[in-house]
């Protein structure tokens, strides 16, 4: 019931007292006891074996799960395996007709030690009915990984405790695929075939036993384990390469992989990597080919599950070197030590392995080796060099002195100098040239050679290597071309950004002459983005219309550069022309939305449009997804309401809500773009509140207020900034 209350605390976000009241209320409404309802709640969230256990035919509905949960609760609170055995006996086994239970712990050598028991007579469990681990026997199912049911223990001829209890079942208990022990249940009579319900229940009870038998805390991820110092010392004392592996569990509790916790000082990686590159990795991450059927991973998993040691005189181990498989034959030993596994291998042919690595390295590096005996004239090439020259293995090799005959004519002088240094001065030398093959293919090659001298300084032989550097050469050519193209592109981008900035500054100068008409003063401040490539489409307008009304507007085009600047010109000029019709702000934005959606290149923008009537001192306004204006009156500052209106260009057809505000003498109204207030790391509401606090104190005039807002802006979005101030004097 306490577990169920804890679930309610988490689900309902309430306290323990409220959870208890809720449990009682729900039980009353459901017509059930609080215990029954608590079990139902736990089953809902557990999803374990106990949830799936069917009921016993002789028990009322729900009674089976209740007693199993009661046994589980007692087992979780138990301090040792003996208490777990007593809990299972008292709460779970009586309805099944069983009269005794034994819990056996599995050792590394597959032996079993009695760890807990209940229901046996005095002396049957090793003396006085106590649970001292004095009995090391193999009860039924000790060497099996599946549940074993025995009708009569005597007929089976298997040893165990409790000779007068013939009916037996032995169920493996373990976690993460590793068997940690066996649960043995005894009946007083020969055991008849049992129902599916009983089978499910004994399997669920075995799962309860595993938690107390395993040295790993349930639910703990194995890669957090630390290998015991004794096991580390054992590995370090061995003369062969050794790995200490720990299991990695998947979310469903099965073995997913093994992690390398430690390697000893003798460890030599198959792929030639340093020890630090292997320690801490998953086994299948370090050695992907170990997952092949019957290979290393299968053996490690079997040893971890059963505890049975594995040894093989000849086993193939494989690793990848730059996606190329390298295999070796080794003697392998695998043993389990607690929850960890010790893997020891001894590579049988170290010289062959190194030769194989060298061969792969030469192939991957496109390197061909040669050696030339100058006394006999014999020239020896490896297969890579024949491939580089495009020749079959049966064709004669080319002597070093004839290398110029196979080179591009322009490279002959440098090759002559190379040959003179090696053959005449007896000095190591190198040269790069274009190799022209008989099949018409040209390869860019680097040749390196060194002389072999006797004690008298006489030249005996020359050995060296050719390396095909064609890919590197063409990469350098392509890189050079790319750098040239990038330089051109950067220059074009700089010119385009410069043009965009000039266009913007012509249309949207940083300051606008203050408009004074009919007692209304309109001042503007505009600051383009600091980075030229981010110059955007913020725009503003303030003009006296033929109707003697004053139009004030602010907008922000989505996008930067030429597209943003040209979009700003389209909308600003379109709004000015539409305003001459005498329509109201909402109608103007409706028409402007049609312009943005249909008559432009997919412009999306926010905007505010206001019309001031000097006769009534009323400002009618509408917004299209823009931040609300800020009204300053008598030392207070408040934002105008958020009128409905979507972004311009977002929908083919849209309507906009219109509002109005009665201006009083001394009022100041601020229209602005998001570049004035927005910060990447601060919520927008806090940014707007910061703006409101900045304008509360009195200011000598409108110009000083606008200058202060630009200077004190904490925006960090690298966007344009525009602010329009409207003051009624």
UniProtKB/TrEMBL annotation:
Matching Gene3D superfamilies: PAS domain, PPM-type phosphatase domain
InterPro entries associated with the record: Bact_Sigma-Reg, PAS-assoc_C, PAS-like_dom_sf, PAS_fold_3, PPM-type-like_dom_sf, PPM-type_phosphatase-like_dom
Molecular function as annotated in GO: phosphatase activity
Domain of life assignment: Bacteria
Keyword annotations of the record: Hydrolase
Domain PAC: residue ranges: 429-481
Keyword Lipid metabolism: no
Pfam families on file: PAS_3, SpoIIE
Protein name: Antitermination regulator
Organism: Lentzea guizhouensis
